[in-house]
Amino acid sequence: MPLLTYPLALIAMAALPALAAIYFWRSRFRRRQVSSLMFWPMNLQSREGGIRRERLTLPLVFYLELLALILLIIAAIGPRWQLPQTTRPLVVILDDSQSMLATVDGTLSPRQKAADSLAEIFKTRSFRSIRFIIAGAKPQLLGDTMTTPREALALIGDWRCRSAESALESAMNLANDISKQAEILVLTDHPPKSTLEAGRIRWEAFGKSAPNIGFIAATRTAQMDEDRCLLAVANHSDQSARTTLTVRHGTNIVHRTQMQMDSRSERQIVFSLPAVGGVLVATLESDSLAADNTAYLPPPHRPQVPVQVSIANTNLQRLVTRALDSTGLRSDGGANPELIIHESPNLPAGTNAWGLRLITDAKASPYTGPYVIDFSHPLTRGLDLQRIIWGAIEITNAPASLPVITAGNVSLITAREDFTGRTQLTMNWTPEMSDLQQSPNWPILFWNLLQWRASQQPGLTLRNFRLGQDIWFRAPVASVQVTGPDGLRRIFSATRGEILIEPIEIGLHTIVSGTMKELFAVNFIAPEESDLTAAKTDTIGGWEENRSVQMEYASVLPFFVLGALATLLSHAWLIARQKGT
Predict the structure, then answer these.
(1) Among 17, 24, 218, 494, which has the minimal tally of Cβ within 10 Å of its Cβ?
(2) Is pTM beyond 0.90 here?
């Protein structure tokens, strides 16, 4: 009790009725037997009889003694008065993860319970200032510094719990950076993972352990003329459970599965359907956490790269064309190709075209390795050149070219950027001396090339993301507008043709940039956050009350002691005066 240092001294208040009792019994008359009343004045009526009610008349010394006792009792309990200039600041860390919105058996969510608890704390404690930290994937300050609880409770409405994780440890480090003397209050739904700093951090958990089933993976990919969907569901509980998975395309149900799941089990559902436009919506039966019961699957990205093949050698042209067609990523180059495959030493025409130059020579020599491969390069993903014969002439890297594949000091594939920023590739390869074209590495190499080129096209390379994942968008114009599922529009400015989008809402989003309009989905895929079994309600740690009393409250005991002394002096003066008279 900050205002009362020694509340047990309130027991001394029993002396007050004792003092009143002394004066009450002192004022009553005693029965006396006398021989006659003739010499007694009869103008005063006895207080002991009659029907008229008389007010009890007490002497002034009684009130002085009563006041002295009250002042001494107040001084004994050690009263303190809070000084605004000495109160400490408060930093409140708000768990912004989706699990704070879980509702178990229809009870209030941890987020609502935490907000109510904060309001109760403000009724009993005063703080010099109040700051909020939103602990999502990256902790960040919420609003400015506030000085009144009313301002703080109004700002807490912006706490919406939309993240896939909560970086509470990083948030506490940020709170320490704000003030080394501030008291820290953590509002979450689970206990801390490490020991808290004693006397300074108060950890309030408002969760409740509950079973939960949710999506842990959701993808929709293109496979030729079909879409392949993969949905993974996990049972985050220690008991078996049952749920129904339903996938809709508009109002039509395209897939439905009844699932009986063991405790702590996972299950994958894979199905294919004809490539159609529109969004697939997968849902599970409702449970404690709603965020992981829905997954949106927009149509997959099917990139097409306009390719122009300018090769005079008929056999070589046939090999290249077959490899390009097998990828399913090639479209007719037309008047504006994005990739030109040629044999000329001159750069290909076109302001945006990449070039792949093939160098063939009858004087080439066969190489069997070992090959030095830069596996971090986009061209080399999935390549396995062991036991591959590669025919090439002895040439080294051209100036400003980086080796991608080499055989000793002989460059087989090199890459460079020209002065316009276009990528120019050189492939030193003679088919008559090679068996590369007879292995799976041949179509893989061209699939990698077209995928790499497609990734540099304006727009998105993927359309399905998890909450918290960064999204890179290549913008055809400088301005980009992103509309979220809540209808909120945000405007971005592209830097070097790219923008980074950090989605904060689950659902379908739309990107508009110039004449380009694209749709992408953000799903809540966070297995650790979907697991509610570790949630609990508890208070861990606390603020050091003794330190708070010493730092924030000044003792007012001397004022009451002086008041009691003054009252007793008045009492003594009054008694002395009455005796003198």
Answers:
(1) 17
(2) no
